[in-house]
Amino acid sequence: MTDEDATAVQAPKPFLEVRDLRIHFPTDDGLVRSVDGLSFSLERGRTLGIVGESGSGKSVTSLGLLGLHNRKNARVSGEIWLDGQEIVGSSADQVRRMRGRKMSMIFQDPLSSMHPFYTIGAQIIEAYRLHNDVSKQVARKHAIDMLDRVGIPQPDRRVDDYPHQFSGGMRQRAMIAMALSCDPELLIADEPTTALDVTVQAQILDLIRDLQQEFNSAVIIITHDLGVVAELSDDILVMYGGRCVEYGDVEEIFHSPEHPYTWGLLGSMPRLDRDRSERLLPIKGSPPSLINVPQGCAFSPRCAYAELNQGRSETERPELREISPGHRVACHLDREDRRRLWDEEVRPKL
Amino acid sequence: MVNFLIRRLLAAIALLIIVSMVTFAIFFLVPRLTGASSADLASRYVGKSAGPQAIHEVEIRLGLNRPVVVQYWNFVKGIIVGAHYDFGPSKVYCAPPCFGYSFINQTPVWPDLLDRLPVTLSLAAGAAVIWLVFGVTTGVISALKRGSAVDRASMGVALAGVSLPIFFTGLLSLAIFRDNLQWFPGAGTYVGFTQNPATWAANLVLPWVTLAFMQGALYARLTRAGMLETMGEDYIRTARAKGLPERVVITRHALRATLTPVLTIFGIDLGTLLGGAVLTEGTFSLPGLGKFAIDSINNNDLPRVLGVVMIGAFFIVLANLVVDILYAVIDPRVRLS
Amino acid sequence: MAAVGAALALALAACGGTGGSTSSSGGNGKFNEGITSVVNASTKTGGTLRIGNAVEWDSTDPADTYYGWSWDFIRLYGRALTMFKTVPGQAGLQLVPDLAQNLGEHSADFKTWTYKLKQGVKYEDGTPVRAQDVKYDVERTLDKNTFPDGPTYFGDFLDTKGYSSPYKDKTPGKLGLKAIETPDDNTIVFHLKKPFAGFDYFAMLPATIPVPQAKDTGTNYKLHPVSTGPYKFESYTPGKQLNMVRNTNWDPSTDPNRKQLPDRIQVQIGVNADDLDNRLIAGSADMDIQGLGLGAAAAAKVQSNANLKKNADSAATARLDYVAISSSVPPFDNVHCRKAVEYATDKQAMQTAYGGPLSGGDVATHLMMPLIPGNQDINPYPSGADNHGDVAKAKQELQACNKPNGFNTIISARTERPKEINAALALQQGLKKVGINAEIKKYPTGDYFKLYAGNPEYVKKNGLGLIMMSWGADWPEGFGYLQQIVDSRVIRSAGNTNLGVKDPAVDQLIDKATVTADTTARGALWAQIDAKVMDDAYIVPFLDEKHLLYRPPSAKNVYVNQGLNGYYDYAQLGVK
Question: Which UniProt keywords apply (chain C) (predicted)?
Fold first, then answer.
């Protein structure tokens, strides 16, 4: 180990710092590089939105942050520092103790993510008592409080209901109550509103925002829907093919995005002020296989502007470069070209 | 819940009545439809060289010349109020529940069924405990150590258990453990529990283990598959995300969900076994209901066959009922829908 | 199934080699020694005789049983008027008095038979046996409603005048049957409606075992028949177990034919047949009551192991496996077509189907076998050097039958009898060689005679030309063996065992035999009947059955009693 490496291993300042995270799965067909060199950081009280199509590696990332990958099937490398503790190199038991208390997660589909045989209350109490040495009565009271806090009516009664007795929105609230029951410092929400209808979506997002302010947690929202992060996030990380292709604060990403993939995502964002027929500009093609990632830019086969740089996109992988403070992009196109394309071609169509 | 119970109970009773009708029809109506006369049926109850006169007498005595509906009604009536039979020097009263009278063995069916029941009960209960414990444990371990040597070895053994017929493994176990090693010298003979509990158990070890080997193999595979599926469920990930230790995740969350379908099959298997473990009882010379059924079929002893079918159906229906209720207790989704 | 059986045989054979079962390979007998002499002769008393029974009794009641092994076993607790001599070899075919002082005295017309009972024979409770009790049991056998299983010889021959049951008998003592007289307590006189010279054989049947009327419980009597033999019932649970203990009121001085060696006799009922074979070989059982011989797996093991084989006997039986040819089904109405089948049959293949020479039997060329008195070895239809069938002769007969290219027909066999079905397949193959194409149809064993093969109307309607059949003598003598399968006058509308032998000449010969007192002359007549039926070609005999019996060294005083159709004699067994 060189001295340089030694300094790199020192605990960094930010609350959450991810450095060069790689999560690979060996399979019979080859190595699946679900996450391949991801770095970002996050402070308490702030919200990061990780956006990408399905298969881009965002969910794998979130499970990696919680240390939930089975070490037998997954090769995880890089560093994840959470409040001074490194997760990737820690023992399974150390990470387990952090889960639920230090960091917790709201899952995509609350019905399948809750155990069908146990009451909502029991599932909250189980988590709470695991991390807090309290009696059942106290834990139950806490569970009722939590349900109350996430806006479930008659929580003292509903605490004894089973997940299937809740409506979708209520279930997601309960899920949030469960995730927040131990006052986690990092909250990861994986597609928290996908299964919900639009009005409930808004309520849930409001709830997450309110609770974040109350608890001062760091929040990561994982979604394929830029609309969700627009409302909630401070920063946005756009993932494609297991890598970050663009990173910046929400203003930058929405107003001067520089990666063609981000443009595509913006184009496919449903917007209420547009007519349905012209509103969606889907990205052509399908996400890359994570087994045989193209040599060059992973997005180039789908990129409408790849030919503008004389084939460089096919041969060379673009580095993530800072183009303005806090705004990073991985694209071979000239900055001028990108700005021109955004202003003249892409934006008018949105 | 009470409503649910009443509904299930009524359905079970209705099912039993239907089974009795169908069985009765198979034995007494179908032969007629295929052209057998009531004298043909009666000829089964007389000896090798009886003349037509004797056959005719039997036909009348057994009421075989009556309409099948009347015969069925008499059968049902016998179950409820008993029946009188006129044989030999004295009249025979078949007390309720009178499940008919074996004219070949000259005994009422019900006491014989009761006499055979403890044997089958002993066999089924002992084997069930063994196969449930070993099958489920093996299945869980296999699933958790998927792909390991332990997994492959136990699934190999399980495949053998599922595919080897019991009359093979049974005879082999007798040859080895009784005849060669002489560990269980009494195996192949049934001694009642009340007679001598130690001998009862010692003599039943081989049939228990053999039957459990076959059934347990099935349960190991079933549990393993269920466990693998459950371990991939979202709520297991949630449980882990809460920070639960793996042991708790497996026992409280995964196993409970896995065992629900296993329990269903267990209930039905046990019910079926209580109706008679035909092959095991035959192989180990156990005078239980299964052996009784086979002997009765071989002897063309229809009243006994009818009785044993009814008792088998009763146990299966009962097991189903118990499973339904247990299921509702375990899985709240069933209770309310 | 076959593959599993073979694997099992191998596995069990392997087990046998690994010690532990050394007890089974002991003993000083030789192969087939039990046929000619008493093996492990012993007069020591004590011990428990452990008998296994793979099936159930039809009944233990002397009025209600028809299994050969049951007739053998019943002598342990019941004494009839006569019995077969309890010695090995041909002498065992001889009848000797049992309850009676002498064999029966008959009137000149063979219609009246008188027996005098021995003095001092007692029941297990010490009360003396009376001639009236013998009569009472015969009366009971007439009641086919209560006792359906026993043979009907008495009902057929006694002049019953409509007497149907002692239970409907209003006369005091219920001894109203006029055809039997009991002038005093020691004398019984039978009046027959037709002459019968072989009545001493009837007197050997369990029907003449005395039953005290006061102890008769009708259908429940089988649970505790009152013993006159050396053993009495201690406990009996049908389908499970029978335990017998010494009968202290049995007096050996009145009974030279039985022994009372073991203290107890224990019969476990419903033992798995293959397991019973293993128990015999392992020495944990002393006797298989059914006496049908070892199953395929065990037979293979015993035949290949000299140490085991010396404890085995390949015992001849009075059972013949044959193919009955239905003369009512064309073209078998033509004798030449029947003869074509006689010649074409591959008897060797059919013998193999039954287990080969040791556990199957000898190839049969005619109806009678050496066990039947008067037997003449004839071979009217030689089926080639290896008994594989004589194709040339068969084709000649087909020519004579105007079916030079063969014909189609149907073979019937019993579903539950794999050996019979395999034999039917071998028959089918053999017939194919001469152009006779036979289809095999399987029927349930229980209804084979009542509904199908024994039902002439069914046979004719469905064209069952060739019927697989197996017939065991009730006792080894012409009448007890042949009458039921060759006398055309016994053919009824259903339940027949004569499947089509209709020859007035045969019927006449039978009538003549039934009134011939001299056993040699009578035997010669039955041999004539045999030859005549063969000449008519109604029957294709293919196997004189032999059973590969196993006598564990633990069983003493073992021999095959020929009079009992080749069973070990259970009334002589010991275990010390």
Answer: Signal
